[in-house]
Each structure stands twice: as structure tokens, then as C-alpha cells.
Write a structure and sequence with these properties.
The protein is α/β, with parallel strands linked by helices. The chain is 33% helix and 22% strand.
Amino acid sequence: MNVKVIALDIDGTLTNDQKKITEATRKALLEAQEKGVRLVLASARPTPGLYQAAECLNMKAHGGILMAYNGGRIVEASSGTVLSEIHMEKEKTKELLRFLETLPVTVILDDGIQFYVTDAGGYKVDYECKNNNMQCTEVENLADFLNFSPIKLLLAVDPKQILKVQQQIAEYLDQELTVVRTAAFYLEIIPSQINKGKGLTDVCTYLGVNLCDTAAFGDSENDIPMLEKAGCGVAMENAEEAVKMCADKITLSNNQDGIAYAMKNWIKI
């Protein structure tokens, strides 16, 4: 297949366990861009959390696209122009935040600029701030504080409880919202129309590229819609089993230059 767009999850896919893009992977992706391939960073992270990887891959110079919040906000890397954005409804989100107060979760809220929490020392709060290069403000109560319409709610959960908590939240939500796992310790509540598959479709429409001319890489549950939509969906060796089952190919792990390996062996540019 002649690939024109490559969509990349970041954590556990593009970056290794040290949160670094290996030189082999970086080189392969830079060479692809030199041949005209457009890169799409497709992450659950807020937009600022994509900037470092985009800079490392020189995406501004090659017409790259940033797909943040699982596709909830899509941005041109070069200009920062927002191509699309989907929000949660503010008052319903306040009700949801009050429900989440009854569950064993750490809620991490953001407005695209910084994070808001009720306990700055809470589970995974510092990790998330460092991962996205964003500051954190502590507030007394998130439901009382909320004065904007967020794109998502991030929940840090003990991995031993995450499946049970996910089910409890799913039973509470109406059809307008959904809850997905984005890591062993993260759940995200987002509008139901948001997913990486729709995001990739929207990007291809904007770029004038057929979905069959795309490749996508991922490792987590939230990557499944994107792998299913792409012309070639590639799961990392370290991916969840459900992700591997839906993929066209399974490459090496994120610690073994899996993206570079796949591009050398399967993806023609």
C-alpha cells in the first residue's frame, strides 16, 4: 500500500517506556515526511501534551496534524488553527462530577491550558502534569468550580479497580457520553461522537486523502476505532489483546522500534 497519512498514538506507541521517541523511530518518520507523508499525532492528551513530540518530528514544517483528546480537538501543527472541536455540556458535566465524587477516582480536569484537581498530591496528578508540561491548580470542588465546557474528564484509577469503576460509570452515563480506558490506570469520559477513528476520518477529509491510504499505530482500547478505520491498522507488541485482535498487523513493542520496523517491512511510501 502507498501510505499518505500515518496516525500515531503517543504513549506506549510512539514513545518508549521512558517517554522518549527513539532515534530509529524518529528517523523513519522524518524520512516519511520528506517523501510527502503527513503525520497525525492521535492522543488522549490535551493539545499542549502533543507539542514536544510534534517538535521532535518537525511536524510544523511538513503539514502535520495534532489530534488531541482522542479526536475531540484537531489542530494544524504549523499554524495552531483549530480544525474541529467537540465539547461536553457544562451543566451535565457538573452533575457528572458530583457522581464521580462517590467513586474511588482522582478527577483531573483541564481547559486546554492547565489542569484542575481537588488534591494536587492525588493519584497520578504529578505524573499527568509532567507528561503534558502543564501546570496544575488545586480547587475546593470541581463541580462548583467548573465555568467552562470541557472536552473530557480524565480519571486516575487504581488498576485493580479500573474495570469495575469503568462499568459503574458506563451504567451511569447516558448515550451522549462514553467512558474509555486510555492506560492501565486512566479512564476518560468524552462525548460519544469523539473517537480516534472519527478523528482520522475527519483529518483525511480535510487533507483530501482516502482512508485506504492511511496507516495507524496504537496500543490501547481508545486506539481501536482508529486501527479499524485505517487502511493498515498496526498494534504494538505491548498492546492490549483486544487491540491486537482488531489490528491488521502486530509489530514490535514501543521499546523495540516497532513503528520503524513496520515502516521498513509493511508500509510502502
